[in-house]
Design brief:
The chain is mainly α and about 400 residues long. The protein folds into two domains: about 5-245, no CATH class; about 280-370, no CATH class. It is about 80% helix and about 0% strand. The chain is built from 13 helices and no strands. The protein has helices at about 5-10, 20-45, 50-55, 60-70, 75-110, 115-145, 150-195, 200-215, 225-245, 245-285, 295-300, 305-345, 350-370. Helix 6 packs antiparallel against helix 7. The longest helix is centred in the middle third of the chain and has 46 residues, at about 150-195. The chain is elongated, with a radius of gyration of 24 Å.
Amino acid sequence: MADLDPKAVLEGRIPGRPPIALIAGLTVSSLCALLVLGLTAVFGGAGFEIGVVLAILPVPLLIALVLALDRLEPEPPRNLAFAFMWGAGVAVLGALILNTAGLLYVTVPIFGEDEGHAVSATLGAPLIEETLKGLVLFGLLWYRRNEIDGFVDGIIYAAMVGLGFAMMENVTYYMRAYEEGGAQQLQAVFVLRGVIAPLSHPLFTSMIGLGVAYAATHRRGRVIAPVLGLLGAMVLHGLWNGAATLGGGGLLIVYLLDFCILVVLVALVFFERRRTVALIGRYLPGYTHTGLVTPQDLHMLGRIPARREARRWARGVGGKGAARAMTDYQLAATELALVHKRAERGVADPAWFAYRRDALLALMATARQAFLRVPPAAPPWAPQGPSGLFPPR
């Protein structure tokens, strides 16, 4: 118990150093991003420094908004960082090479200069860019399937990939705007891409995230769901790029369409959050015999406001240590319910299920130890009854 690493248990990994594959992936992605920035600085024209600053400026806020949707069952930070850097590095460099090659050797020779650029923007770029961004999601599906517990996870990973890609792409757009129209045009492009529509790439790639999430949590549709998600991302991306040739009316229609899809995705996130905590009341009553949970605890764990109140109470009676322990207890209970959900759907290996279940129960027991060191106090969710966090002393 004393050697238990709560973070490793919650992330479903073996404690210790990060895996070599992750280090290599982050290294390659970072080198690709640096190469793109170097090429942009050398061949992109004036305004490189301005473009970089404006491209990075909204990213911390956008990442914070994405992570705010992931608080109930947070994804491993190292995986999120890799997804972001893949979008900013490998996907951008690959798109730069393939899009340029497509223009030079396919679309322009076939359709001519103007028509070739239009075809590349509306057909070639969406196909290439969404495939490259989707590769990291397909990799998670293949190698880290158990990390994806539902649609929210797919949306979060897709959003991180899209934010990384958009950040690097915006450097070029801002440089071009500054070079062609000075500060006035730069301001207009920044408002459009950095303020009004900063989530376009995350929105497109979220379609892949939904397909991958379905494939990771269901026995059927494991091939068709990611393919349909990829096609959906390409269609949305193509409509966005093609709207520029249709004038203001076309742009307005595409903006409204993307806004409606964004609203649906956010609603899906909140719906799945509530459904996830409801799973606790379905699966965890079977663990009351362990003494780690009681009916009163299940009531607290199954309601988001009650969970929030419990964390505040823990901080009040035991400080940061008790608050951290309460968070670990709640997250472990949530993960345990999701593990049972995977098992019920037949997508969990029995050996993995047993190992994961025992590790999460051990973490809940470890979290309880923090409350043995605080003064006895009736928790707000169990004022008259027993609680697994306060066993008899």
